[in-house]
Amino acid sequence: MEYAFRDIEKKWQAFWEKNQTYRVENQSDKPKYYVLDMFPYPSGAGLHVGHPLGYIASDIFSRFKRMKGFNVLHPMGFDSFGLPAEQYAIQTGQHPAVTTEQNISRYIEQLKNIGFSFDWSREVRTSNPDYYKWTQWIFQELFQHYYDKDADKALPVSELTARFAAAGTKSVNAVCDEDVPVLSADEWNALSETEQYAITLKYRLTYVADAVVNWCPALGTVLANDEVKDGVSERGGYPVEQKLMRQWMMRITAYADRLLNGLNTVDWSESIKEQQRNWIGRSQGASVRFPIENSERQIEVFTTRVDTIYGVTFLVLAPEHEYVDELTTPEQKAAVDAYVDATKRRSELDRMMEVKKVSGVFTGSYCLNPFNGEKVPIYLADYVLAGYGTGAVMAVPSGDQRDWNFATHFGLPIIPILDAQKDIAEQADATKEGHYINSGIINGMSYAEAVPTLVNWLEERGLGKGKINYRMRDAVFSRQRYWGEPVPVFFKDGLPYLIDEKDLPLELPAVDKYLPTETGEPPLGRAADWKYKGEYEYELSTMPGWAGSSWYWFRYMDPRNDNELASKEAIAYWKSIDLYVGGNEHATGHLLYSRFWNKFLKDIGIAEEEEFAKKLVNQGMIQGRSNFVYRVKDSQPATFVSAGLKGQYEVTPLHVDVNIVEQDVLDVEKFKQSRTDVPADAVFILEDGKYVCGWEVEKMSKSKFNVVNPDDVVERYGADTLRLYEMFLGPLTDSKPWNTNGISGTFNFLRKLWRLFFDEQTGKNVVTEDAATPEELKALHKAIKKVGEDIEVLSFNTSVPAFMVLANDLTSLKCHKKAILSDFVKILAPFAPHIAEELWEVLGNEAGTVTFQEFPVFNPAFLVENSFEYPIQINGKVRATLSFPADAQPKDIEAEVLANETVQKWLEGKTPKKVVVVPKRIVNVVI
RNA sequence: GCCCGGGUGGUGGAAUGGUAGACACGAAGGACUUAAAAUCCUUUGGGCAGUAAUGUCCGUACGGGUUCGAGUCCCGUCCCGGGUACCA
Questions:
Q1: How far is CA A588 from CA A703, A788, A893, in A?
Q2: Domain range A865-926, CATH architecture
Q3: Which residues numbered 646-685 in chain A sit less than 7 A from strand B, measured from CB?
Q4: Which entry of A155, A274, A421, A715 is 20 to 30 Å from A726 by CA?
């Protein structure tokens, strides 16, 4: 009987579905474990072989944890709002819900084909109204909270207004807009309800603002910073321009410090944590106000090096700075106007390309150094960004290379400020070492002494203060799109109000077209008679892609709850994700927003833990491995030459579908049939009777003809082989090309395993009840140890060889003993669940129960060796091996080694300088 | 530029500071077969010497260093991949 993988896999997939094998309850005597994959966007192209990599890894881990006695939550769902469905809808007029539904069905079919142990009863889809009801609900909660800095958490707006009424706006230390009015309690209480409401809008965690956004005219939408790459949209590559628009914003900056500090508590890769730290971009420094000469006004700058203040020889403002007009003297007006104009016209791309070039213009005005009253010229330069800090910097050319370049270019003075600075004439020196010189009140001090001295001086005079700046901005939350969650807000007299909670979900209305309206409103503006309570305008933008994915792990805990996003009991039980697996392209998007929402949900008593995912693993990308044929240039009839001979011709390489190539050998007939551009009389120049293709590693994509569909692999080799092979390819976190060439190795292993149970000729079951020998137990327990340890650290690529070695060993030992094979099946079950269930049944066990067997326990007693083969090194090079009892004493070993013939030969009669004996490792004789 | 990864046979890769190349693919040779498939056996980093067993030298991007011993640790250089950028 052959290993009939197709029948076996179908049988067990049906069994699991019928018996609800992987259904999991929210209560159990067992400890819980939550393993989550980043859920996919169901694209029209279906899964390719790269997608399941992480799912296979997390599935193995889930199955392993089940066998280790955990109650494992391992769900799957779909991030089903998104642009491609909408673009398709624009082209075809088909409702995105319809295509999304079709795509999801296809995904589920493909996923079920691979034998994952998902609890499908918990599936969620972000585009379902019963799901996005809760996305909208969270939005409303954000709207009803503000961030209190003293409590260091979100508090209800009702608390804010109560405190305003009792003690005025100054009594609350909150994160808010820059332009909030300062009111006493009496002044506050004298305001109308609407006026008070308008003020609270400046405090809420989600708010409306006119924001400069990345407007993409081609897509008709606003893009997040991380959706824009090099000035064009990441999706589609369309031009993006800066535009001021009314947008919903998320006050994520309120959580900046918690987002930063939380990184120290999670087991995530250092690279992701570092990316998030950079994204948040916290810098500690001071703000300093420079009075403008002959003016009442001051220019505020932010600096991380307030200690260098006596080295300031000029100030630089962003060309967009609000004081530019005022500061420009008549003589400089023409030059300034020209510069500002040129800056406006330069695209971001130009600005990036000219990073090295110094440009700028003098305004004609001066300000005064607050410490010594020195006159400081004010320049404009486009290297200063309006959006960061205050849009103005104090320039210290002796300590900052960019300032040094600028000073040198414009002939401005460069003042040394530290005695440890060197070579100021050649370049800047940013050192903090040494003692200050030319520095007024801090002369002679060290860096550590100078900073507090200066900050105190500034604060006493109200000229500045210690300040922390963040690179991170509040997140734009509006999208001018159709296929997303409607924002549950209506407008009355120009002010936004929440719709009643009982009216949630606010469902997407029908529209005639999925395009902006003629007047430039988002597509929702097309909905007929779409008004709240029949009279109020709804918000017409929808939520961004990340809204639905920023809390979905909670919904899996209690996916059908109509009253809450998840019950308190469910959240108390599952708490947070123990292992989260996904691609690292989400490093600063999804993973940062999710942390933000989780922290907010913790503040309002829903989440149990500060961080939503304890451990995060980023699987590597599976790249494509493209194959090429080589067409001889200008050949008639068309001539293709095998890769090994292409050097003899002038050739054009052409991509060829990898699915008609095996071991880099082209199936010429299929090639002729599949390509209309290959004439029937095409000539193929072969080597050794074969047409060998060239290859290259590229992105996996249709256009490169290198996409491999997991369904095809499953059809040919089975899901278990696919699972093993994807793990066998290399470390989970590495990117690697998919190369089907090696897959027969894992397939052969499963067949070899099968032959331990069955005689393939006769089909007879050959399993015996004999007692295991020490040798067999040793082989088995080596594998148990290796596999158990490897899974814990997600080193799946090294467990597969352990299985192969065990199968090879047992084959050589002619071992068909149930006592050994039972445990083999169990340790293999997480990797290859179908064949494991089948063989488990063959061994006489109850059908479908291998899933819940205890993972075999490694017994070190079986691995004890009574002797050890010592490599004997002479000066670090192995010259012999000698066997010694395991408990041999080093001095005995040394004596015998020195007496050895080979060692004697190398000693040439000399006495060794040293003999190193490492028990059960090695012996090194140093001559 | 800066911050992370990484560079090991023809290929994917393995290796708590202790015999580099496990395991697998591919390749070559052989057995079985009328033949093929499947299976099994042998060889497979490179050079030199030897009929052979074997011996010997070189070898983990490159150059140094630490160590009895370095793919592994340290310093410097080069290359590849990812992230990020006039961030004050």
A1: 29, 33, 58
A2: Roll (3.10)
A3: 663
A4: A274
